[in-house]
Amino acid sequence: MSKSIQQTRAKSSNSTASKPGLVVANFGAKLVVEDCDGVLHRCAGRRKLGTLVCGDRVRWQGGDHQDCAVVEMEARQSELARPDKNGRKKTIAANIDQFLIMASPGAEFSTGLIDRYLITAETLGIQPLIIFNKVDLLEKDQLAEFKQQLAPYEKIGYPVILTSSKTAHGIDALMPFLSNKTSIIVGKSGVGKSSLINLILPDAEARVGEISQATGKGTHTTTTARLYHLPGNKGEVIDSPGIREFGLWQITPPQVAEGFREFRDYAEQCRFRDCLHRKEPGCAVAAAVKHGDISAQRYASYQRVLVSLEETRN
Questions:
Q1: For 51-76, how does the pLDDT look when each residue is reduced to its tens digit (9 = 90+)?
Q2: What DSSP string describes 159-184?
Q3: CA 279, 284, 288 angle in degrees (round to 5)?
Q4: Alpha helices of 63-203 — where are they, by DSSP H?
């Protein structure tokens, strides 16, 4: 039984009209809800509850897969959301403890995308971890170049783990970070998220098959977030659909600045309290960049995020 369902059952043990459950996937009109025994049920959600997502703790009613209904949703402790193509809020997953920000070499690699996920993690107070996958594809000098680009993150305290889903390199270092947490793997399509899931979770393919059977949907392409349990139910991992770019949902320029953790100590020394660290006189953050105390790579990324916010609002 998952930790999440145990918590839900404990909070609602006085209710006999409904049963606790955990949303493990959302396929539009149909939800896949896991009960306390790990059995999956196809359920409909009530309109008044809004859109339910992977990781939501709920209560549901019904006796078989054809007529189950989610009747209540517990308050979310956290949620990962981004704007959809129309600028409206699109929630991807809920009740997350940790972001696993995944990148790989080639066209998929983007420090800007990593930075956007880090801003979201810092804003929500969720622990981030950076995974650089497919290192087996790199020659020694190529790997050194990517390590140089990832070094600024390690310098400011973000764990960075180099992995290979093909050779299992780095998996032993990764597993302790997953223990007793609900983690979501995020990143562009093609970075190897599903391959990593299959490596760390031996029953992942069977789980996908169970979800497919419950919904009648395909088993291979990740078009919606899906939740998996670690062996022994010592944590959960959510595999999210790959995206080209991650937009920040309703975030302000001061929140962007706060999302760059290495700015904070220097920001207190800026001449102006509302300094956005652009071209303001007496900016201690800009001075720290000039002196090499803050990564120029990260500072340039920060400037690009601010520009993208302005373009979105105009």
A1: 899 999 999 998 654 578 999 999 99
A2: -EEE--TTT-TTHHHHHHHHTTSEEE
A3: 100
A4: 111-124, 140-155, 171-178, 193-200
Give the domain range for residue 43.
Answer: 3-73
User: Is pLDDT of 194 > 50?
Assistant: yes
Do 143 and 229 sit in the same domain of this protein? yes
- What mean pLDDT comes out for the span 242-269? 86
Residues 85 and 222 in one domain: yes
Please state, in angstroms and rounded to a whole number, the distance separating the CA atoms of residues 96 and 153.
21
11-34 pLDDT, tens digit per residue, is 433 334 789 999 999 887 789 999
Alpha carbon separation from 140 to 15, 95, 135, 147, 227 (Å, rounded): 60, 39, 10, 11, 35
Q: Which two tokens stand for residue 159?
A: 């764990």
Residues 128 and 147 in one domain: yes
Same domain, 66 and 84: no
